Every structure is written in C-alpha cells, then in structure tokens.
C-alpha cells in the first residue's frame, strides 16, 4: 500500500509541477491545488498506513494510527483552501485588470523601474 | 450570481440546509470525543449557507441571515486568543486549558472544557472566512 | 526585576509618554519633561559611588531566556558606573541645552526626544549588562537611535547620507561582534563577561581565540570610529548639535572604548590584542589630528578631533594591557596607561562636550559654522569665547586644565612602551612615543585654529547670514557647567581619583587586584624635569611654528586624490554594490514566473537527490507494509486518471471537474487510512472549492495553449517528472526508516488524562498543539481580508472614476 501511495504521490507532484510551469493562470492555480493534495497524502504515507484503528479513544483498542500527521494534514487542508481561494481571486482580478491570463505577457519588471 | 428560479432546488434546499446546519452543530460539539470539531463543523455550516446561496441569491440570504462575516471572523479570532491568554490570569503558561465535571440540570453530569471555547473561536473563524470569500466574489458581479 | 533594571529601562518607558506630552502640552517645551529622566538617573547612580569605591560590585539578575543562557544581568562595577554617570550626567546637560537649541514651534520634538531617550536607555544597557547577548541587543539599539538622530532632519540629503553611512558601518561592526560573542560562547560556554574573565587562561589556548578577538575588536573599532572605519563620524555631524555633543563625542562613540576596556581581562593576555588596540589607536590618533587641521567647518574639525582623541584613549588601553603581564611587579608602571585612559575619558567628555556646545552656539547665533566666514567674535560673544578658549587649551594639553594632566600621563604611558620587552615591542615600540608626539603637535595646531580663527582675527560680519550676538543664558548653562568641571578637575584631579578612576581601573585590570597590587591613583601637576615635560614644551613650540606657517604647508592635503581617499572608496563600493546587485537581479529575475519556479524546482531536485546519493539515504524496506486491496488500486487509478486529465484538458470546465475528482478520491483515501476527521473535512472543503471555482468560472478565460511550443512543454515535462521521482524516492525512504520513535505516543497516552478528550486529532488541534491552530486561523483571516480588499478596492476605485 505504501509503495502504491508513493507512486501516486509522485504522479500528483509531477502533474502539479507541470501545470505550475505552464503559462495559463488557471492551470497554475489548479497545479497548486494538486500540489497540496500530493503533500497531504505524502505526510500520511510517511508515517505508515493503517497501523491501527482510527485515533478515537476506545478502551478495547490498544493500537491507533498516528494522530499527529492527521492533525497536521487537517490544518494543511484548511490552509490550502484559503490559499486556493486567494489565488483564484488574484487570478480573476488580474485577468480583469490586464485582460490576459498569459504569464509571459504579464512580465513587467523593466517598465516599473 | 445569475438569477435562478428553480423551485425544486429551492424547496429541497430549505429542508436540507437546516439538516446540514443541525448536523454541523452536532459535529462541532461531538468533536472532542468522536470525529468532528471546530474546523469540520464550521465548514459544514458554511457549506449549508453556500447551498442556500446557490439556490437563492445573495440578497435573500442577507435578509435571512444578516451577519457581517468579517466581524464574525474577527470575533472568532478574539475569542480564540482570549481563551488562550485567559490561562495567564491563573498564573499558568499561555494556552493551558482547564476542564472539570459539573452536574447540570437536564444534562446530568457534563464535562466543561475551555478547549470548547477555543474551538468556538475556530468555528466562527472558519464560517466567517468561507462566507466572506464566497460573498465578496458573488457580489463582485 | 529589580530597581536597577527599572533604572536601565526607565528611558524607554519614559519615551512612550513623550509624544503625548508634546501633543498635549504645546505651551511647555517637551525637553523640560525629558530632563527629569537623566537627572533622576544621575542622582540614582550617585548612591552606587560608595559601593564601587569600596571595590564592591552589585549584580542583579532578571531571567529572560534562561534556557539559552540569556539573562538580563545588571552588573554595576567601577567601569560601568563611570559610564552610567557620564551618560546620565552629560545627558542631562545636553537635554537642557537642546531646550534652547531646538525651538518648540518648528521642530518635531516628539521624534527627537523619543530617539534621544531610546539612546540613553540603550547606552545604559550596554554599560551595565553582564550578559553579552543583552549587551549586543542594546549595542544595536544605540546604532539604530544614532541612525535616527543623524537623519533627524531627514529632508536634507546630507543627513540621509550620513545616517546611512553610520548605520552601515556600525551595524557591520555590530554583526561581527555578535559573531565574536558566539565564538566566545562556544569556547567558554557562557555569555557572562564576569565568568569569561575567570576562564581567560583557558580561552587563550583555544583555536577560536584569535577569530573571536578580531571580531570583537571589529565591533569596537567601528563604533569608536577607529581608522579606517572613522569615515562615518564626520558625516554624522549632520545631526543637531546637541546630538553631536552627546552621541558623537561624549557617549556612543565611547561604547567601543568601553567594550575594549570591558573585554581587556579576557583578551589582554594575548600580544595580538596589545598590538592591535595600541596600534590602531595610535594611528587613529595621528590620522584624526592630521586631518582635523585642514577642516574649515567647526563641527567637522571637532569630529576629526574626536576621532583622534578616541584613538588616544584606545592606544592607552592597549598599552595598559601590558600591565597584566607584570602582575608580580610591585610598582607597575604600565598601570599608568590604564589610569590615563580612564582619566582622559572623563576629561574628553567635559572639554569636547563644551566645545561642541560652543560650536552649536556659534552656528545658532551667526548662522554659519564655516571658519573662513567667522572671525572677531570675541567682543560680541565673550562668554562663548571663554568656553572655547578653556576647552581648546584643555584639548591641546595646556596647563592648568585637566587635558594637560591626562596628556602628560598619556606621554608617560607611551614612554613606558620603551621599557617593554615582550612581543617585539623592544624594536618597534619606539614608534609609539614618536607618533604620539607628532599627533600631539597637530592637536595643538587645530585647537589653536579652532579658537583663533573663530573668535580672534579680523571681523567679517558682512559674510554672516545673521547678525551675531551672545547666546541666551539657558544655552550657556550646560557648556559653562562642563567648562567649570574642566577647570575644577584641572586643579583638583584627585577629586576623581578614588571615587571614579580607581574603581574603573580595578574593573579593567581585575587580575592585578587579585594578586594584591594596590591601584594607586595620584595625579600630580609637577613631575619634575621629566621627559614628558620637555615633550610638552616641544609640542607647544612646534605647534606655534606650524600654526603660523599653516598657509605655506596646507597644500599637502590636496596631494591625496579624491579617488584614493577612504570616503571615495566607501562611495564607490556602495554604488558599485548597488549597480552590481541590480545587474545580477535583472539577469536572474526575468519577470516571468515560470523562470522562478524552474529555479526553485531545479534546486529542489538537485539538493534532495544529491543528499540522497551522498548520504546513501535511499532505503526501501518491504516489511510491515499495509496490504493492498483491489478497490484501493481502482481508487488510485481514478485519482491518477483525474490528475492526468487535467494535464490534457482543453476546457476549463473539464479541468475543474477533474480537480474535483482528485479531491474526492483523496477524501476516500482518508477514509481508508482511518482518518475520519480528514475525510469529513476534505469532502466539505472539496465541495466548497468546486463551488468557488464555478463562481469565478465566468470571469476566467478559456484555457488556451496555442502559444506553448513543444520545446517549452518538453522542458516542463522533464522537470516535473524529475520532481515526481524525487518525491517518490523520498517518501519511500521516509517510511522505510525511522531515526526515532513518533512523538505522538505521548498524545495517545495522555489524551484522556490531560485533555479529557477522546478524539485525538481534535485534541491535538485545540489543546496539545493549539498554537498551530491559533496561527492557522490568523492566516485564514488574513487570506479572507486579502480577498475582500482585492475585490472591494477595485469597486471603490471604479466608482471614483
């Protein structure tokens, strides 16, 4: 299972990076979304999968899965939601102001100096 | 938002959103012992509100629930910080929680925990930000 | 927190109220309130005089970061108290002077006094802290407040230039000092100076000893404007004159002196210390006095003279270190150098402070500080002239003022070098008295020039912007007090010897006291016909000759082309680093986000892969793996298919839906991995996210990939596959080997006992790791506000248009 998940995570990361390197704003945002999915799965996989019951205290159970990565991932999920929403609005405002979603046309360092 | 006039959606939403909200409140309070908590509860409530938003429009929702969600975010943050800072008054390090068991009428023996106060803060922040984001985007048209 | 700590931070606390007093009580000059602070502190510190006079010290500890060994230890001994009294005493006089110098109607007094109080507190912190890290913190505070005060008239270009220059140089020194402090900690295992002094025998054998010594000295030399770092001090004269008198002559520039004195017991066993401190000091003495002669601006002349006098004190401290090598001698002749250093420190503060105030008065009443335009003021400003002539004569080392006494002792100290037979001093040591004598001649020349060109000579009042007259009495009080001290200390030097000088010398040379030597401070006027006396006579003789022939040899100064001066070097270095930096960034920063991402990901792959290979970190362990069920494989395939669909999607709707598929599959994986909280959250979040994407849907452009050429896409594909492989390998190695047990066992064991909860994930979030959550909701709030601002700002703007 861990082996399978490693490959899945690798593919998620690869697709995410490919999308982020493209020129279209929307694809970049979707790329960041994929990247966070990959990171969440990676965190869980690294701690070992299905090592016990769900981390809800029960007197009959002695072994639980590691709760700490889960707590970290929960935080990360919510944060990535906030960041995705922010990116989305940034992209949409950029498009409205500049009339393009091509990153290459947005380069503007020279004109600002 | 585009004007929608979908009778079935609106009728179903009326019922469902209340169920979702009730469920989310259950999730919130259950969070200390079973899956749930401030994040999930807050998100669930926000999801119900988003559903209402999709079925009706922003003005209607504003009439039903006239909240300023930015204020809600701020209030939630304040509650969370004050809960954490409250422990300083009792001369214990920042963020030390306290709990005890009380005999309450109707509910029987209940455990009261300051972590719930903190979680209420989280709950409010999550609803607040989700709705702020959705509302501002919706209104911008 | 003891009263002593409160005294140190009192100026900071008082600074908080200054803006309110300035705004609220317009009719009273804010300076009157400020004056109370140094006055009170001065009186407070007087009570320590009998304590240190008996050779006792007072140490009060306030725990700050005890786990790192950083505590605010206030340590009052002779040296610290001497500086504290200088800081508060001169501080009170300077504040009094500034009340008349800065008009309350025109100036931003609330800024000025806040900076000044900040400086005062920082300086007290420097001289009274025993912990080096705390000392460093206050040290940088003095740099910052000095920066703010030099740039007080920030609309002047020269002010900003001077402020930046002083900041760059002193903070550079401060940072290297921090490096030295860290090295000392590595060697001795403590930040406490007193403990380090006890360890000095061990430290000297450590290989890190020399680097630590150099770094600490760098900090001291930049702060005390020693050659070649002196160039910031003349430019710092753009500050208001009270500031120049206070920071840039009496106190802040002496912080470096203080540090050298304070660290002497730690380092002084080494010959390198003696050579560097004495060598740089004596050369700075010469260079400063030589350059002072050519200045035509009153304050610039005083600035160079300050540089030179600082060099003088520094060289005395260096030579005084030799005393430590002879702690078996009964009559230690090298101790005289340290005594002279402390004595001259006090004298310099008195005469230079009054001279700066004199220059401020001349500037204030005539409108110029240019010596070429001044002259003949003696009849119009008799009191100011008195101040000037006493101060200058003291500076030149003429009797009967205090400068004469310390100058004689200085010459004695330098002559004593001739008798040293360690560290090759027997061959090169002869240079010390020679350079000292030459520098003293120049000192004499510029001191005379200062008075004679300003107050005597032909009056040329038509060149002055203002009609000159004597200053108001309030402005004259402070310099008069100082100049009275110059005379009093001149006639009764032994007033100071047991109360201030002796305890300070004992603090600089503690090992001498331990070995039972008596620090015997007796300052005489008349030594008999000793070499020092003839040297002084020679100084006066040659000085008069040089001064009267000044016009003939002044051309020497123009021989050095601007290009090769230190200032030219500094300016070119600064502009060079600016343009170089600009060229570098404009080469790297293309303004195209993909380029930056390529940098990031390439480094990511390169660093992680090379670490994996070099450390042979890749391990794959198949034992203890979870079983794979068929539906899990199917779910994985759905997830991968979703991700790949996005890559090739031509429409935005397909992309968004595919992203949703990926998200929901991840949620199902969370279910399989026994993470119910995660699954719930992920499900709701995914729903809201898709709703968000759809909300923005109409505003976003269709995905067009026409402009992406094949080569572009191929490069991206290679890089992304490399990133994917790296991640996979790291993930495999990560779960295959554990260097330590998971800390979560603690959370599992204590979830009920400590937190009275059952859901471990939630308990970790709200209780065990509540800080994470607190900061997380802060981030979320910021993101929501950002979104709100991005949209509303536009709306508000378009309404205005």
Name some characteristics of this structure.
heterotrimer, A: 113 residues, mainly alpha, Helix Hairpins, 4 helices, 0% strand, elongated, C: 801 residues, two-stranded antiparallel sheet, 2 strands, 71% helix, CPA3_antiporter_subunitC (chain A), transmembrane helix (chain A), Cation:proton antiporter (chain A), transmembrane (chain A), NUOK/Mnh_C1-like (chain A)
Fold and architecture overview:
Chain A: Its main location: membrane. Chain A: Belongs to the CPA3 antiporters (TC 2.A.63) subunit C family. Chain A: Keywords: Cell membrane, Membrane, Transmembrane, Transmembrane helix. The complex is a heterotrimer of chains A (113), B (141) and C (801). Chain A has helices at 2-20, 25-46, 67-98, 109-112. Chain A is mainly alpha-helical. Chain A has one domain: Orthogonal Bundle (Helix Hairpins). In chain A, 60% of the residues are buried. Mean pLDDT of chain A is 83; it is low at 109-113. In chain B, 68% of the residues lie in helices and 9% in strands. By secondary structure, chain C is mainly α. Chain C has five domains: 1-224 and 231-267, no CATH class; 269-525; 548-589; 593-742, Four Helix Bundle (Hemerythrin (Met), subunit A); 743-801, no CATH class. Helix content of chain C is 71%, strand content 2%. In chain C, a hairpin with a 4-residue loop joins strand 1 and strand 2. In chain C, helix 1 (3-24) packs antiparallel against helix 5 (109-128). Chain C is elongated and about 110 Å long. At the A-C interface, helix 1, helix 2 and helix 3 of A face helix 27, helix 28, helix 29, helix 30 and helix 31 of C.
Largest sheet of chain A: none
**Tally of alpha and pi helices of chain C:** 34
Largest interface: A-C, 90 and 98 residues
Percentage of β-strand residues of chain A: under 5%
Mean pLDDT of chain A: 83
Tally of individual helices of chain A: 4
Helix-strand topology string of chain A: HHHH
Largest sheet of chain C: 2 strands, antiparallel
Q: Roughly how many Å apart are the termini of chain A? A: 54 Å
Protein name (chain B): Cation:proton antiporter
Main location (chain B): membrane
Membrane topology (chain B): Multi-pass membrane protein
Transmembrane segments (chain B): 12-33, 39-59, 71-92, 112-134
């Amino acid at each position: 299972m861990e082996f399978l998940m490693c490959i899945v995570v690798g593919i998620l990361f690869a697709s995410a990076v490919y999308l982020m390197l493209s020129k279209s704003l929307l694809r970049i945002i979707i790329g960041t979304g994929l990247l966070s999915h990959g990171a969440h799965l990676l965190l869980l996989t690294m701690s070992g999968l299905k090592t016990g019951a769900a981390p809800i205290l029960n007197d009959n159970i002695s072994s639980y899965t590691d709760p700490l990565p889960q707590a970290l991932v929960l935080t990360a999920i919510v944060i990535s939601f906030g960041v995705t929403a922010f990116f989305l609005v940034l992209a949409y405002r950029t498009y409205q102001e500049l009339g393009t979603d091509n990153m290459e046309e947005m380069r503007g360092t020279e004109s600002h100096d | 938002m585009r004007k929608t006039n979908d009778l079935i959606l609106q009728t179903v939403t009326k019922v469902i959103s209340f169920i979702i909200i009730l469920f989310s409140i259950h999730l919130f309070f259950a969070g200390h012992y079973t899956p749930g908590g401030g994040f999930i509860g807050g998100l669930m409530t926000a999801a119900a509100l988003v559903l209402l938003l999709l079925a009706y429009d922003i003005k209607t929702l504003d009439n039903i629930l006239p909240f300023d969600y930015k204020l809600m975010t701020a209030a939630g943050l304040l509650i969370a910080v004050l809960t954490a800072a409250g422990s300083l008054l009792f001369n214990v390090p920042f963020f030390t929680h306290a709990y005890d068991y009380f005999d309450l009428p109707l509910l029987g023996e209940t455990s009261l925990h300051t972590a719930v106060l903190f979680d209420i803060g989280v709950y409010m922040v999550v609803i607040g930000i989700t709705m702020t984001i959705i509302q501002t985007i919706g209104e911008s048209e | 927190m003891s009263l002593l700590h409160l005294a140190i931070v009192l100026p900071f606390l008082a600074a908080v109220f200054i803006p309110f007093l300035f705004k609220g009580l317009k009719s009273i000059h804010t300076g009157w309130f400020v004056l109370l602070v140094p006055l009170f502190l001065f009186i407070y510190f007087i009570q320590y005089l009998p304590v240190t006079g008996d050779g006792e010290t007072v140490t009060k500890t306030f725990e700050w970061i005890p786990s790192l060994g950083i505590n605010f230890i206030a340590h009052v001994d002779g040296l610290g108290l001497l500086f504290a009294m200088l800081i508060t005493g001169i501080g009170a006089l300077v504040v009094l002077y500034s009340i008349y110098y800065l008009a309350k109607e025109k100036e931003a007094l609330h800024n000025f006094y806040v900076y000044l109080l900040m400086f005062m507190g920082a300086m007290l912190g420097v001289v009274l802290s025993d912990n080096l890290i705390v000392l460093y913190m206050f040290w940088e505070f003095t740099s910052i407040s000095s920066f703010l005060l030099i740039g007080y008239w920030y609309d002047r270009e020269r002010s900003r230039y001077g402020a930046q220059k002083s900041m760059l140089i002193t903070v550079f020194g401060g940072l290297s000092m921090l490096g030295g402090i860290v090295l000392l900690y590595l060697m001795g295992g403590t930040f406490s100076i007193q403990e380090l002094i006890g360890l000095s025998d061990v430290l000297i054998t450590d290989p890190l000893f020399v680097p630590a010594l150099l770094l600490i000295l760098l900090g001291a030399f930049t702060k005390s404007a020693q050659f070649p770092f002196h160039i910031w001090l003349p430019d710092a004269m753009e500050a208001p004159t009270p500031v120049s008198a206070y920071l840039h002559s009496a106190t802040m520039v002496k912080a470096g002196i203080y540090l050298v004195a304070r660290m002497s017991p730690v380092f002084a066993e080494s010959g390198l210390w003696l050579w560097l401190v004495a060598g740089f000091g004596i050369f700075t003495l010469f260079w400063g006095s030589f350059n002072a002669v050519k200045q035509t601006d009153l304050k610039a002349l005083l600035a160079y003279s300050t540089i030179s006098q600082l060099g003088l004190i520094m060289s005395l401290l260096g030579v005084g270190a030799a005393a430590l090598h002879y702690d078996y001698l009964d009559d230690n002749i090298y101790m005289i150098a340290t005594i002279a250093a402390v004595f001259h420190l006090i004298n310099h503060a008195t005469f230079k402070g009054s001279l700066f105030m004199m220059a401020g008065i001349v500037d204030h009443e005539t409108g110029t500080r240019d010596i070429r335009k001044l002259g003949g003021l003696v009849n119009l400003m008799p009191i100011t002239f008195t101040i000037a002539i006493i101060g200058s004569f003291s500076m030149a080392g003429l009797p009967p003022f205090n400068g004469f006494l310390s100058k004689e002792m200085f010459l004695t100290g330098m002559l004593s070098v001739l008798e040293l037979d360690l560290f090759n001093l027997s061959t090169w040591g002869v240079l010390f008295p020679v350079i000292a004598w030459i520098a003293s001649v120049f000192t004499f020349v510029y001191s005379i020039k200062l008075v004679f060109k300003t107050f005597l000579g032909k009056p040329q009042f038509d060149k002055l912007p203002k009609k000159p007259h004597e200053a108001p009495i309030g402005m004259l009080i402070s310099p008069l007090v100082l100049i009275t001290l110059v005379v009093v200390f001149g006639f009764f030097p032994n007033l100071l010897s047991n109360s201030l000088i002796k305890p300070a010398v004992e603090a600089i040379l503690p090992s001498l006291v331990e070995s039972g030597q008596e620090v015997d401070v007796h300052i005489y006027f008349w030594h008999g016909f000793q070499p020092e006396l003839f040297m002084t006579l020679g100084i006066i003789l040659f000085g008069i000759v040089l001064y009267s022939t000044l016009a003939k040899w002044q051309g020497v100064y123009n021989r050095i082309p601007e290009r090769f001066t230190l200032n030219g070097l500094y300016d070119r270095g600064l502009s060079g680093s600016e343009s170089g930096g600009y060229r570098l960034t404009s080469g790297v920063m293309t303004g195209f986000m993909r380029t930056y991402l390529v940098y990031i990901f390439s480094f990511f792959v390169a660093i992680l892969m090379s670490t994996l290979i070099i450390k042979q970190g890749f391990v794959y362990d198949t034992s203890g793996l979870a079983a794979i069920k068929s539906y899990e494989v199917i779910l994985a395939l759905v997830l991968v298919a979703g991700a790949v669909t996005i890559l090739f999607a031509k429409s935005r709707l397909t992309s968004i839906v595919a992203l949703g598929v990926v998200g929901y599959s991840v949620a199902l994986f969370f279910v399989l991995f026994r993470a119910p909280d995660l699954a719930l959250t992920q499900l709701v979040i995914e729903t809201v996210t898709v709703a968000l994407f759809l909300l923005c849907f109409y505003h976003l452009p269709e995905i067009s990939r026409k402009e992406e050429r094949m080569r572009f896409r191929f490069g991206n594909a290679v890089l992304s596959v490399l990133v994917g492989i790296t991640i996979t390998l790291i993930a495999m190695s990560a779960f295959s080997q554990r260097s330590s047990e998971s800390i979560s066992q603690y959370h599992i064991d204590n979830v009920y006992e400590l937190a009275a909860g059952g859901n471990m994930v939630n308990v970790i979030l709200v209780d065990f790791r509540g800080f994470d959550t607190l900061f997380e909701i802060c981030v979320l709030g910021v993101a929501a506000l950002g979104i709100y601002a991005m949209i509303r700002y536009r709306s508000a703007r378009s309404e205005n248009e």
